[in-house]
Design brief:
The complex is a heterodimer of chains A (366) and B (509). Chain A has one domain (40-327): ABC transporter involved in vitamin B12 uptake, BtuC (Orthogonal Bundle). Chain A is 73% helix and 0% strand. Chain A has helices at 11-15, 17-36, 41-53, 56-81, 89-107, 113-142, 146-168, 191-197, 210-227, 229-239, 241-246, 251-278, 289-299, 304-327, 333-349, 355-365. The two termini of chain A are 17 Å apart. Chain B folds into three domains: 4-238, P-loop containing nucleotide triphosphate hydrolases (Rossmann fold), CATH 3.40.50.300; 243-339 and 426-509, Rossmann fold (3-Layer(aba) Sandwich), CATH 3.40.50.300; 351-425, no CATH class. With 509 residues, chain B is α/β, with parallel strands linked by helices. In chain B, strands 6-7-8-3-9-10 form a six-stranded mixed beta sheet, sandwiched between helices. A six-stranded mixed beta sheet of chain B has the order 16-19-20-13-21-22, sandwiched between helices. In chain B, strands 2-1-4-5 form a four-stranded antiparallel beta sheet, with helices on one face. Classes of the chains: A mainly alpha (366), B alpha/beta (509). The A-B interface holds A 6, 223, 227-229, 232-233, 235-236, 239-240, 242-243, 245-250 and B 305-307, 329-336, 342, 344, 349-356, 360, 363-365, 367-368, 373, 376-378, 380, 406.
């Protein structure tokens, strides 16, 4: 088995056994590191899982983080289907936050919830798409590499937003770099309140209606990518650009639209954070959600089902990791990042590490 | 010791369900030129890849100079004195000849010492075999024939006693080919062994001592070149009487469908790829374009299909000026809409998306067809129904529309492309290399389809590097060389000699 040849593994094994093996390997290395700094790895693993899934509040937080990761995962996957690597989800989500904030500031005194919320969603998507449009145009028309430009656009967005929040949008009289609180008519309904309206009591968590939106977008993503002409063109451009040119597809246009759709999806993760949880915009509220999206899309193999599952994994790692670092003083925030990094490394970067071994095992069994 | 350089005994190799080599037996005497002939897909290249260590045989054994050996990779093959000249050259364009030759055999971390030794060695090889290659020339600036000699030199430099050449004349003009064979004869006189893979009968008969004929992965004959003639060899190769001449009635062409005037194309480096082309294609006629690969035929097809914009000149299709027309969509899509279908020369690069299933490939280029949609979405039933129809009409195997196109054999891939383009019922069909890498059964099928289409009153422009294909299909033949049309011959009256002369026409003036 040499590199670049199609796998001899059956597809179901590629989709199930391989990711599980990769995850186990990541956990094994994490366990070794945990043991070296003097903690009990098994105990830590139990704390992590309990933190993510062991109690109602934990589950709520896990799903809240999952929601953001689904959006950015889908964003990266959209670009990926067109053969583009959008590293700029972070900046696009950040800019989407600006769109949301400006819309809320303009209308939260005048418009009711049912009118304001769609406006906010549109603003988030338009601002996210707009921020992705520039690198997309540069790639399609001038050949500037999208990886380089989107990374640079992340830095630009940090600086622009820091300036805007620090100087123009800051709540008057406040010492914190944060905007004023949004009017309650701009809040995404929380899961707790929605469940309460039908008589179910849920613990108080930031999990909100964006989660449902994320699942709907997943279904739409599937239909658009695999069952429409545009999705067909997207995938053709991504897998064989020469064939797309031969088939009379407008390759630059497909690239630009794909990136804009990607930016719009990344923008929706800001809805989850700002309208669903904080109800105001802080500096660096995105907190790496765009980068985790890359890992989510890679691990989820750019398919919505895979993306939901891997987003859940990273949501659980974020929430469980936080609980773990509260319970164990030796396990710092940095240690949790290390775990996430190892998961990304094994499941994304070293995706096919165990493939030859597993393929041989299958052959031998036959 | 023995006088056999290479002996292959019972070599078997399969890829999945496809058997590429079955019980292959072959003996190559030292100091001889040995030909391996067979249709595309007969297993010649697989066999040589096994000998050169790219693949491992499933069973069987290889003897080099009488010694049984295992060749696990190309380094081991080189160590055993086996060298290979690939069809596609493995050279670094912006290195000099000398740099290319020591690549992989630099002889130390610091280049200088190795370079000087290499230069002396190279000079000796150059003289010994009459190769006439300047060690300081930049490879990218050399002609194809010279680049090939660099490849030969590279193999000799590494101490090759057995030289394998894979389809060496595919890219050469007849003169360059003659020069190559003179070199091979010199090599033979110096005691080297040459193995020549080809599917051209003439050259193999003229230049070799012994011939192995392969068909469908098996050896069907080991013969001495002087004992056979072309017809016998062709029958052996195909396994039955071959009638390469396609049954075709005379037909008076109808109206002119496509006319091209003063068409020129210059690429962005300023190289003129097409020079003042003038020709026309009428309804109910096949116009063939013959020529050695890389003389502008590919570019011509791309211009006519709307994938490349011509630099100047006129293209008129059914009374419409295709150059000055305003296009609201990409030109390739617009031209399809006007009834120009295109079977591209390189089906795996352009004609298909190998990762897509057959039914997805069946709409490539016709993805905007409204009848495929139900509302905003594609109707999966409609897509699959169309694919099933194509599969049935063109006998594509296996007949599963959900199968990935990359898993099909070359012939079936080509049938998918051809079926798709013919299904669109075009008035003008542009066809490039319709039978490249296609098995003989499929070749006949494809040829019949093309003639059927012509008899149905369609115009066909056929580009092929296979002279026999051009001669048997075309009503008129245009010959291209150096981006120009160097001559026109009526199909029935064409001879390979006459076409061959025209094919060198644009080159050496």
């Amino acid at each position: 088995m040499s590199f670049g040849q199609p796998s001899t593994l059956p597809r179901w094994a590629q989709l199930t056994i391989l990711p599980v093996l990769n995850l186990m390997a990541a956990l094994l290395v994490t366990g070794a590191v945990t043991w070296m700094i003097g903690e009990n790895p098994l105990e830590c693993l139990k704390l992590l899982i309990d933190g993510a899934f062991g109690y109602g509040e934990g589950i709520g937080y896990t799903l809240f983080y999952t929601t953001g990761f689904i959006f950015t995962g889908l964003a990266v996957a959209t670009a990926f289907h067109a053969g583009l690597f959008n590293i700029g989800g972070e900046g696009q989500a950040y800019l989407a936050g600006l769109g949301i904030t400006l819309t809320v500031f303009a209308f939260d005194k005048v418009l009711p919830f049912w009118a304001l919320m769609p406006l906010c969603l549109i603003a988030a998507m338009v601002f996210g798409a707009g921020w992705a449009y520039i690198p997309a145009w540069l790639q399609a028309k001038r050949g500037s590499h999208i990886v380089v430009t989107t990374i640079m656009f992340n830095f630009i967005s940090y600086s622009v937003m820091l300036y805007l929040i620090g100087h123009l949008l800051i709540e008057p009289g406040s010492q914190n770099p944060t905007t004023r609180e949004f009017g309650a008519n701009a809040w995404m309904p929380s899961m707790t309140s929605m469940a309460a309206s039908i008589g179910i009591t849920l613990p108080n968590t930031p999990l909100n209606a964006s989660f449902i939106l994320a699942l709907i977008v997943c279904a739409l993503f599937y239909l658009v990518v695999w069952h429409t002409r545009w999705g067909y063109e997207l995938r053709t451009v991504g897998t064989n650009g020469d064939a797309a040119h031969y088939a009379g597809m407008n390759v630059p246009k497909v690239i630009i639209i794909a990136m804009c759709a990607s930016g719009a999806l990344a923008g929706l993760s800001a809805v989850n954070e700002l309208l669903g949880s904080t109800h105001r915009m802080n500096v660096s509220f995105t907190n790496g959600v765009g980068f985790v999206g890359v890992a989510v899309a890679l691990m989820g193999r750019n398919h919505p089902i895979g993306i939901i599952l891997s987003a859940l994994l990273f949501g659980a790692l974020t929430q469980g990791g936080m609980d773990l670092s509260f319970a164990k003083p030796l396990i710092t925030r940095e240690m949790v990042w290390l775990i996430e990094g190892l998961v990304i490394l094994f499941c994304g970067g070293l995706e096919n590490l165990f493939e030859p071994f597993l393929a041989r095992l299958f052959k031998w069994r036959k | 010791m023995t006088d056999l350089a290479i002996e292959l005994i019972g070599i078997c190799k399969s890829f999945g369900a496809v058997v590429a080599n079955r019980d292959v037996e072959m003996k190559v005497a030292k100091g001889s030129i040995h030909g391996i002939v067979g249709e595309n897909g007969a297993g010649k290249s697989t066999l040589m890849s096994i000998l050169y260590g790219y693949y491992q045989a499933d069973s069987g054994c290889i003897r080099v100079n009488g010694q049984e050996t295992r060749i696990r990779n190309s380094q081991e093959a080189i160590r055993l004195g086996i060298g290979m000249v690939h069809q596609h050259f493995m050279l670094v364009d912006n290195f000099t000849v000398l740099e290319n030759i020591i690549l992989g055999a630099e002889g130390g971390f610091v280049l200088k010492g190795g370079m000087e030794a290499a230069r002396r060695h190279l000079k000796r090889l150059n003289q010994e075999y009459g190769l006439e290659v300047d060690p300081d020339a930049v490879v990218g600036q050399l002609g194809v024939g010279l680049q090939q000699r660099v490849e030969i030199l590279k193999a000799l430099y590494r101490g090759a006693d057995v030289l394998i050449l894979d389809e060496p004349t595919a890219v050469l003009t007849p003169q360059e080919a003659d020069h190559l064979f003179r070199i091979l004869h010199t090599l033979k006189q110096q005691g080297k062994t040459v193995i020549l893979i080809t599917h051209k009968l003439r050259e193999v008969l003229e230049s070799t001592d012994t011939i192995t004929v392969m068909r469908a992965g098996m050896v069907v004959g080991n013969v001495r070149s002087q004992d056979v003639d072309r017809a016998a060899l062709a029958d052996l190769m195909v396994g039955r009487k071959v009638n390469l001449q396609v049954e075709k009635n005379d037909r008076t062409p109808g109206d002119v469908v496509l006319s091209v005037a003063n068409l020129c194309l210059t690429d962005n480096r300023g190289v003129q790829l097409l020079k003042n082309l003038n020709f026309s294609v009428s309804a109910g006629e096949i116009v063939g374009i013959a020529g050695v690969a890389g003389n502008g035929q590919s570019e011509l097809l791309e211009v006519l299909a709307g994938m490349t914009e011509a630099s100047s000149g006129d293209v008129c299709y059914k009374g419409q000026d295709l150059v000055r027309m305003k296009y609201r969509q990409p030109k390739a899509a617009a031209l399809r809409g006007l009834g120009i279908a295109h079977v591209p020369e390189d089906r795996s690069r352009e004609g298909l998306v190998k990762a897509f299933s057959i039914y997805e490939n069946a709409i490539l280029g016709y993805q905007c067809d409204r009848s495929l949609c139900r509302g905003l979405m594609y109707s999966r039933q409609a897509l699959i129904a169309r694919a099933k129809k194509l599969i049935q009409q063109f006998d594509i195997r296996p007949d599963d529309p959900l199968l990935r196109a990359g898993l099909l054999s070359g012939g079936n891939q080509q049938k998918v492309v051809l079926a798709r383009e013919i299904h669109a019922n075009p008035d003008l069909l542009l066809v490039g290399q319709p039978t490249r890498g296609v098995d003989i059964g499929a070749i006949e099928f494809i040829h019949h389809r093309l003639v059927e289409l012509r008899d149905a009153g369609k115009a066909i422009l056929l580009v092929s590097v296979e002279l026999e294909e051009i001669m048997s299909l075309s009503d008129r033949i245009l010959v291209m060389a150096g981006g120009q049309i160097t001559g026109e011959v009526v199909g029935r009256e064409a001879t390979a000699q006459a076409l061959g002369l025209l094919m060198c026409g644009g080159d050496n003036q």
